[in-house]
Amino acid sequence: GNSVTQMEGPVTLSEEAFLTINCTYTATGYPSLFWYVQYPGEGLQLLLKATKADDKGSNKGFEATYRKETTSFHLEKGSVQVSDSAVYFCALRGSGGSNYKLTFGKGTLLTVNP
Amino acid sequence: NAGVTQTPKFRVLKTGQSMTLLCAQDMNHEYMYWYRQDPGMGLRLIHYSVGEGTTAKGEVPDGYNVSRLKKQNFLLGLESAAPSQTSVYFCASSPVGNPETQYFGPGTRLLVL
């Protein structure tokens, strides 16, 4: 079945530091890949997505590139802010019949200190 | 637009009690989902619905039931609560044309003693 593995947290950075959160996946066919973000006390919201190999998703300064050869979708940001403190979830949607279901990773807690 | 709303926000139950969590969406979405979020486990799908009157089991359905009598509402029921069901429950919805973009509610925190 489909699965998503993302780096264990928590991750603690200083403001303006570079961020990488690793995500790898296992899936058959050609899944779509996503990063969701959960701010404290809120539900998840879509941050960015990529639907085919070599696509780059980007939003709010975050980027992730769909690498089929390494089955990865790592999240990066060049300069984090305190307001980026949140839990980040990598997720995939399979290319098979149940294309409305997402498989989530366990989440990575990011704390950015001033 | 309120988006996805959940009631209640927080509830404490005793073992064996029953309750229903209500999810409502005003975006006319076809698909709706119930997840639970536990520390170190991420989100796990409990049940989902692909349209009014239909429901299906997700990854962890045992101990829960659901109903989708109206398109905008998706109810999650616990018939006999157990401490293992202490969790944060999230409802989400998504449109047919863009099913991977799920819109989440703010969550319900449930404590079973």
Shape of chain B: globular
| Low-pLDDT regions of chain A | none
Order of helices and strands of chain A: EEEEEEEEEEEE
- The number of helical segments of chain A is 0
Helix content of chain A: under 10%
Which class of secondary structure composition applies to the elements of chain B?
Answer: mainly beta
Shape of chain A: globular
Number of strands of chain A: 12
What Rg of chain A is obtained from the alpha carbons, in whole angstroms?
14 Å
Strand content of chain B: over 45%
DSSP strand (E) fraction of chain A? over 45%
* Count, helices of chain B: 0
Helix content of chain B: under 10%
Q: What class, by secondary structure content of chain A?
A: mainly beta
Q: Looking at the chains present, what oligomeric state does this protein adopt?
A: heterodimer
Averaged pLDDT of chain A: 92
* Terminal Cα span of chain A: 41 Å
Work out the radius of gyration of chain B. 13 Å
Order of helices and strands of chain B: EEEEEEEEEEE
List keywords for this structure.
heterodimer; A: 114 residues; mainly beta; six-stranded mixed β-sheet; four-stranded antiparallel β-sheet; B: 113 residues; seven-stranded mixed β-sheet; 0% helix
